[in-house]
């Protein structure tokens, strides 16, 4: 039964009328008489006027219940205080709008193409709704400008300690489904202080003069994970500076804002559109952008590769809008595809047996088997690079019966063919033909042959090895020196046997490590640099030293 | 006869008590007969039989539905397994043992024998012992003492670690927030390990016990009912309520559809002919040896990608394909042969990308194992980045020499579909209709998102389809963005046929009984909205909405003499075991060699097509024949439609995970569509001179998204007439023509199922069916 005493709009109206009548006639009609007096006027009121009285009634109701003071303690059926209830979707939306505004404001007086943006991603132990914390296992960060592309990056595995009791199953399942990082990963770094300093260095490097902490970007569905992981690292690092990395922005907003800023799009693109575009999977298994562990396990859930993929996709989206050209820092390094195309005649007995009747007009695959570019192509590489790769491919498959190694251009950039390629068009089984192409043509090829004679030399080693700079001067742009600074500590921590009792301590003693990260300035000598590379984390890959 | 819901509720409760009185044990929701458990000693497994029961009101009265289920337990306790593992490790490295043990046991479901409860092992606490104490009712008590006092179980090994289980969501809501510790000695693992599941011997030995033939199943169930009627304890439960249970399964009438005719093409004169098959097998792979596919697509330019190790397999596949192809009318040319040095994902992708050209019709990838991420990577690449039809084949499938030709045949049929060909058509004497299949899929890795898929037939033979997917948040089965999908289907139908369908049959999978009204209201509204959006208010198609359920407990048996066998495919039951307030029926559409066949339930929740129920059933049965991966009738009507939809959904789903605005995906749609058997990739038929060519010779790709697309002139009426004439000509004999005549729009549909008239009785043979759903239950 509804409570008859609760006021409604009409009741409030009657009260008001009653007062008016009393003021005029000095005699107030009783409440029983009032409906008859007021009903016609009430009916003639507009909806807005009625709403006014409904509002009054609502206030009155609230007053009867005990006022706003008491409302603070009213709970819903889940025993949550109603006044504190927040719609997370609305909250997040609000926050994103605010962040976008501040971000756009901060760009006011600078060239969009030269602003440094930093993207971050964590792989976590498990992602469970019921656990409101996240334990980081892997960290990947890159910094880029639109003009220069990605110029530095940071990657490390983190050992967050033991799995919280009871969550082992979650951890196993999450690892199996996504990042494949085992629960007790030996590459995991426990030097939280070092990691924290690396992160702060990475962020503070360019804008050291300003106090403003630059934002970190990640995808909108990862903000919670990133915040939680940074919190964890900060707490574990034991540094006494306050936690300041609270600017975790959504990368979708960044891309959308940049598009808007260009003035070429009138309507702000929908967030989910950009989200989809950023998460495209064309580079999922591209070898050259992953860390060595995930390269080995052939897994696409690698933080380093994820952040790079976001950046590549963003470059791809924005280059047309903001008019900057894509260099090799904007796209993954092209690895030579490792396949051999056999002539179909040598394949399957049926063809040899003949069945001439079905000799269809098979298209010549040479000419027309090149796919249209799947994405915007960077500027063509030099011929030199093409030649570098060529022997690698040939020599790895000499064991195959008709090793007709073919290097068709994946996209427009490999337009240059080896001279003998055309001539060998028709004689398929000519093995000499192949040998010709392996002949050494330049010093860099010699270098490559040397490389390839090493047992199982992965192509990615080329860049990381000591002579890398001599061979490919172009790679100097990658800002590897910067990266080396970052890594100065961590590899040494991994390679040096931990002192007794080490594993218990959350913070590494610094005695056995290299100098702290800051002391490795930009002017580090080549010797220093190569020694660090030699220790095996060239471009984030834990390769064993080869020299 | 009492029919109130409360009565049924009480009857169900009583029946549970009866099972309890028969000394059966409750595990989760079902009662199991521990005394009858069979031990498979060589694999250390135990199979416990049990029953799933439910009492509900049907047209035949209050009926008890019973079926046999099995639970598989390991004979060893977890402690035994731990010791075995430790002894087999032959190294004294404790941490290695710990890791291995965690790998083996964490995540398993264990059952504690003393109370038959199941838990998931979340962790192993190596430091805990049964001698540890916990607080119970304010007192400290050791686990060993607790089990002794409370359950009268003695724990022998005091030096074992404890298993840890976290409370479920339900427990937390109830207030149990603490982790539970279990003693390994008292726990047995339930279910099979992955290893055992892939072991052929284990599965074969288990199948002896779990896969029961129809005769034995009926015998066991009748024995169970007899036991209830005789057992004193059970009667003590039932008698005070004056209830009894019939001891025999019910005999109910059913009808048998004749074998369907399938449209294929004659080898010599390339005319469309009909083939039939043996109704008992519902398998026409033999019958189609001497005919061509309905519309084969020649595969002249294709690519085969394989790792070096699989070279022999790939060569054989290529050879077999080229041999089986011509027999079906498919010319399969020489492939571009791409050999890979390893089987890494990137190697596959690069090889495919680099060798792909506009002309490549098909990419065949031979893979060494069924790694999910590689399959996903290949499919994502071939569906989204570089749209091309693709076929992934495992080397395992190709390893058996003798079966290779039939494997190649199936692969060739599948590829024909993917390239836009048609394998076989069905003879549906009706035109201007569209059959739509809808289903949704939840990915376990992406908890807060589901995918919905829709496929819609575009031609009369139901061989070509339109398809589109959508994403909806949350876990429920309701499709939220159906309007977009449905208008797309209507538009495509119009593009192809020049008119909109008059009748639309919607087959919807994945809806529980409780959700029917919700699904009806939300989805029918969206469908009507789509009709209004695409053709205005004047367009009011006649819509039938049919809910399909494949996982049901109802079992049907056929009795021939004294023998009880599986009913033949084509058996329809629409009486007695159906609900009186529903328009539902069961169809047995498949034939099984082993075990008992499961019928499929169809429930027409809305129908304004005016079709006679019999014709709806017949149409449904026809649709079961159109699953092109299988030359047999499939287990669910329109499964063709679902499986095709879902297969791609699964792949594409992970890719753009939050496509909440499907309108953005027109390009994606085109890609997806290109992937589908049929739909947008149309077929060129100009070189086949038949009367059937009129229905298919459109532009090769009449996609409206295509910039070069110019709309076809509407097909002239003459064409349409020729079409129906062709169909009529193909229908041989009087019966089919009669059928054609009888499907008239003016036949008003009755919601109540009415008895069949004489004509209809002739049309379908009556068979007697035993249904286990049917034990009378009522007051004595």
TrEMBL record, chain A:
InterPro entries: HMG_box_dom, HMG_box_dom_sf, Maelstrom, Protein_maelstrom. It comes from Plakobranchus ocellatus. One of its GO terms (biological process) is male meiotic nuclear division. Residues 3-74 form the HMG box domain. Residues 3-74 bind DNA. Residues 421-433 have a biased composition (Acidic residues). This is Protein maelstrom homolog. One of its GO terms (molecular function) is sequence-specific DNA binding. Residues 382-393 have a biased composition (Low complexity). Pfam families: HMG_box_2, Maelstrom. Signal peptide: none annotated.
UniProtKB/TrEMBL annotation, chain B:
Residues 696-709 have a biased composition (Acidic residues). Residues 77-191 form the PAZ domain. Its main location: cytoplasm. The keyword Iron does not apply. One of its GO terms (molecular function) is RNA binding. Residues 691-715, 729-758 are annotated as: Disordered. It is found in: Cytoplasm. One of its GO terms (cellular component) is cytoplasm. Keywords: Cytoplasm, Developmental protein, RNA-binding, RNA-mediated gene silencing. Residues 362-652 form the Piwi domain. It comes from the Eukaryota. GO terms for biological process: regulatory ncRNA-mediated gene silencing. Residues 738-758 have a biased composition (Basic and acidic residues). Belongs to the argonaute family. Piwi subfamily. PANTHER family: EUKARYOTIC TRANSLATION INITIATION FACTOR 2C. This is Piwi-like protein 1.
């Amino acid at each position: 039964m509804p409570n008859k005493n609760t006021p409604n709009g009409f009741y409030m109206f009657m009260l008001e009328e009653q007062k008016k009548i009393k003021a005029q006639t000095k005699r107030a009609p009783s409440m029983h008489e009032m409906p008859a007096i007021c009903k016609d006027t009430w009916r003639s009121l507009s909806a807005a006027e009625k709403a006014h009285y409904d509002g009054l009634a609502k206030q009155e109701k609230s007053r009867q219940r005990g006022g706003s003071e008491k409302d603070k303690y009213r709970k819903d059926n889940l025993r949550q205080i109603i006044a504190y209830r927040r719609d997370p979707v609305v909250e997040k939306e609000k926050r994103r709008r605010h962040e976008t505004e501040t971000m756009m404001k901060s760009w006011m007086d600078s060239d969009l193409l030269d602003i440094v943006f930093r993207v971050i991603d964590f792989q976590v132990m498990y992602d469970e709704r019921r656990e409101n914390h996240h334990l980081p296992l892997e960290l990947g960060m890159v910094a880029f400008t639109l003009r220069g592309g990605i110029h530095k990056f940071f990657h490390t595995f983190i050992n967050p300690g033991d799995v919280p009791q009871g969550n082992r199953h979650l951890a196993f399942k999450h690892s199996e489904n996504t990042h494949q990082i085992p629960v007790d990963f030996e590459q995991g770094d426990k030097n939280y202080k070092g990691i924290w300093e690396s992160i702060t260095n990475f962020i503070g490097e360019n804008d050291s003069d300003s106090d403003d902490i630059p934002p970190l970007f990640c995808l909108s569905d990862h903000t919670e994970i990133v915040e939680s992981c940074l919190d964890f690292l900060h707490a574990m690092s034991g540094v006494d500076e306050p936690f300041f990395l609270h600017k975790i922005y959504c990368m979708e907003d960044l891309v959308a804002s940049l598009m808007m800023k260009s003035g070429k799009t009138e309507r702000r693109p929908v967030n989910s559109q950009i989200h989809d575009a950023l998460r495209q999977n064309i580079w999922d298994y591209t070898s050259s952008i992953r860390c060595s562990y995930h390269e080995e396990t052939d897994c696409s859930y690698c933080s380093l590769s994820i952040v790079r993929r976001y950046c590549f996709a963003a470059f791809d989206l924005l280059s047309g809008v903001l008019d900057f050209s894509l260099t090799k820092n904007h796209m993954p390094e092209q690895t030579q595809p490792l396949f051999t195309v056999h002539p179909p005649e040598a394949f399957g007995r049926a063809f040899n047996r003949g069945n001439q009747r079905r000799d269809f007009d098979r298209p010549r695959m040479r000419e027309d088997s090149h796919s249209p570019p799947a994405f915007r192509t960077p500027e063509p590489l030099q011929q030199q690079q093409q030649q570098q790769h060529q022997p690698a491919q040939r020599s790895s498959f000499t064991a195959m019966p008709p090793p007709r190694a073919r290097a068709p251009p994946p996209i427009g950039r490999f337009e240059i063919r080896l001279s003998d390629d055309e001539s060998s068009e028709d004689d398929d089984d000519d093995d000499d033909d192949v040998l010709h192409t392996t002949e050494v043509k330049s010093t860099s090829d010699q270098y490559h042959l040397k490389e390839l004679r090493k047992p199982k030399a992965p192509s990615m080693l080329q860049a990381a090895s000591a002579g890398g700079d001599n061979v490919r001067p172009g790679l100097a742009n990658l800002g590897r020196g910067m990266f080396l600074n970052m890594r100065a500590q961590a590899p040494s921590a991994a390679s040096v046997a931990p002192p007794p009792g080490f594993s218990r301590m959350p913070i590494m003693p610094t005695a056995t490590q290299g100098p702290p990260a800051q002391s490795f300035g930009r002017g580090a000598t080549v010797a220093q640099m190569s020694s660090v590379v030699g220790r095996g984390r060239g471009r984030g890959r834990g390769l064993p030293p080869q020299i | 006869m009492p029919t109130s819901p409360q009565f049924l509720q009480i009857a169900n409760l009583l029946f549970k008590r009866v099972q309890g009185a028969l000394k059966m044990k409750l595990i989760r929701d079902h009662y199991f007969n521990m005394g009858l458990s069979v031990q498979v000693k060589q694999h250390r497994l135990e199979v416990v039989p049990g029953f799933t029961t439910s009492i509900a009101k049907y047209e035949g009265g209050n009926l008890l539905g019973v079926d046999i289920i099995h639970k598989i337990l390991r004979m060893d306790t977890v402690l035994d397994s731990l010791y075995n593992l430790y002894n087999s490790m032959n190294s004294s490295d404790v941490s290695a043992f710990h890791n291995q043990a965690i790998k083996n046991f964490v995540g398993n479901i264990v059952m504690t024998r003393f109370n038959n409860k199941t838990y998931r092992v979340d962790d192993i606490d190596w430091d805990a012992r049964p001698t540890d104490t916990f607080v119970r009712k304010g007192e400290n008590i050791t686990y060993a003492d607790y089990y002794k006092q409370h359950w009268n179980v003695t724990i022998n090994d005091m030096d074992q670690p404890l298993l840890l289980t976290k409370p479920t969501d339900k427990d937390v809501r109830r207030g149990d927030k603490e982790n539970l510790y279990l003693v390994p000695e008292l726990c047995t693992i339930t279910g099979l390990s992955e290893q055992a599941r892939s072991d052929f011997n284990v599965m074969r030995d288990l199948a002896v016990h779990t896969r029961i033939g129809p005769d034995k199943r009926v015998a066991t169930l009748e024995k169970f009912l007899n036991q209830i009627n005789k057992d004193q304890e059970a009667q003590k439960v039932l008698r005070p309520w004056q209830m009894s249970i019939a001891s025999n399964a019910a005999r109910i009438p059913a009808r048998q559809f004749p074998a369907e005719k399938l449209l294929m093409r004659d080898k010599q004169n390339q005319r469309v002919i009909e083939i039939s098959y043996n109704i008992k097998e519902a398998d026409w792979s033999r019958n189609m040896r001497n005919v061509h596919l309905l519309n084969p697509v020649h595969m002249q330019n294709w690519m085969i990608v394989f790792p070096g190790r699989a070279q022999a397999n790939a060569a054989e596949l290529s050879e077999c394909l080229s041999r089986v192809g011509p027999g079906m009318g498919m010319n399969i040319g020489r492939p571009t042969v791409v050999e890979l040095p390893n089987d890494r994902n990137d190697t596959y992708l690069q090889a495919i990308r680099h060798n792909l050209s506009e002309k490549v019709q098909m990419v065949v990838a031979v893979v060494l194992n069924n790694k999910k991420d590689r399959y996903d990577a290949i499919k994502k690449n071939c569906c989204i980045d570089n749209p091309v039809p693709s076929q992934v084949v495992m080397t395992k499938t190709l390893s058996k020499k003798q079966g290779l030709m039939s494997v190649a045949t199936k692969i060739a049929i599948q590829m024909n579909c993917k390239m836009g060909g048609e394998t076989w058509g069905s003879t549906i004497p009706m035109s201007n209709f569209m059959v739509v299949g809808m289903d949704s899929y939840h990915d376990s890795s992406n908890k807060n998102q589901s995918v919905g898929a829709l496929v819609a037939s575009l031609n009369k033979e139901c061989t070509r389809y339109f398809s589109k997917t959508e994403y909806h948040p949350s876990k429920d089965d309701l499709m939220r963005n159906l309007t977009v999908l449905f208008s797309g289907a209507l538009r495509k139908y119009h593009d192809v046929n020049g008119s909109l369908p008059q009748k639309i049959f919607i087959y919807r999978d994945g809806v529980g009984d409780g959700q029917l009204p919700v699904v009806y209201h939300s989805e029918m509204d969206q469908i009507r909205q789509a009709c209004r959006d695409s053709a205005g208010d004047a367009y009011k198609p006649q819509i039938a909405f049919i809910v399909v359920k494949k996982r049901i407990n109802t079992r049907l048996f056929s009795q021939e003499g004294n023998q009880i066998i599986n009913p033949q495919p084509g058996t329809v039951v629409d009486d007695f075991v159906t609900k009186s307030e529903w328009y539902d029926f069961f169809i047995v559409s498949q034939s099984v060699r082993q075990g008992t066949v499961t019928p499929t339930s169809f429930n027409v929740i809305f129908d304004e097509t005016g079709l006679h129920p019999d014709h709806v059933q017949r149409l449904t049965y026809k649709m079961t024949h159109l699953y092109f991966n299988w030359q047999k009738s499939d287990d669910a009507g329109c499964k063709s439609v679902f499986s095709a939809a879902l297969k791609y959904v699964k792949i594409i789903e992970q890719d753009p995970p939050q496509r909440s605005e499907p309108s953005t995906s027109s390009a994606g749609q085109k890609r997806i569509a290109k992937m589908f058997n049929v739909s947008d990739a149309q077929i060129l038929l100009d070189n086949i001179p038949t009367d059937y060519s009129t229905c298919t010779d459109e532009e090769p790709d009449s996609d409206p998204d295509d910039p070069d697309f110019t709309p076809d002139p509407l097909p002239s009426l003459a064409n349409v007439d020729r079409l129906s004439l062709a169909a009529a000509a193909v229908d041989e004999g009087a019966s089919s023509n009669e059928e054609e005549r009888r499907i008239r729009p003016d036949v008003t549909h009755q919601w109540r199922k009415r008895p069949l008239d004489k004509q209809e009785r002739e049309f379908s043979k009556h068979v007697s069916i035993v249904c286990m759903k049917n034990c009378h239950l009522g007051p004595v």
